[in-house]
Design brief:
The protein contains seven helices and no strands. With about 140 residues, it is mostly helical. The protein folds into two domains: about 80 residues, Orthogonal Bundle (Phosphatidylinositol 3-kinase, Chain A), CATH 1.10.555; about 30 residues, no CATH class. The longest helix is centred in the middle third of the chain and has 13 residues.
Length: about 140
């Protein structure tokens, strides 16, 4: 190997997977997305982050949803949703360009609906409902922060 090839090989060997220090540079399987479990189990405590495949769906929505109308109201294609959910649960590589924004939004809505205690948990959700009833706007903002 020439000096350029050696440098490239060293750089490729030092690559770490996103959010996983010391991980395998090119894992054989992606993280599996678990539907219907607590958010703590989906976002592991040792790596407090959103699983990669789920993050890709969120980023796709962030990029394309503002350009579309009623993204979270219109239903996605049922067959494509089932296929996408299966791929996410199995940890298979997904090409999100093959799915419409409406299908991706429907899969994310389904994921969020299946969280047993909601996104915030029961205690925080109850507190948010109490804060909504406060008349003073400044007090509301302070309590939410």
């Amino acid at each position: 190997m020439g000096s350029w090839a050696q440098r490239m090989h060293r750089r490729a060997a030092s690559v770490v997977t996103c959010g996983h220090p010391g991980g395998v540079p090119y894992p054989h399987r992606l993280e599996k997305v678990k539907f219907g479990v607590n958010l703590d189990e989906v976002c592991k405590p040792e790596y407090p982050s959103i699983p990669g495949p789920l993050l890709v769906l969120i980023l796709k929505l962030n990029k394309e949803a503002p350009l579309r109308k009623d993204v979270f109201r219109a239903p996605g294609h049922q067959g494509a949703m089932k296929k996408l959910i299966h791929f996410l649960q199995a940890g298979r590589l997904v090409n999100v360009d093959n799915y419409s924004v409406y299908t991706i939004a429907s899969v994310l809505k389904k994921f969020l609906r299946k969280l047993p205690n909601g996104i915030f948990g029961r205690e925080v959700e109850t507190e948010l409902f109490r804060i909504i009833e406060i008349e003073d706007e400044l007090e509301k903002q302070t309590r939410i922060h």
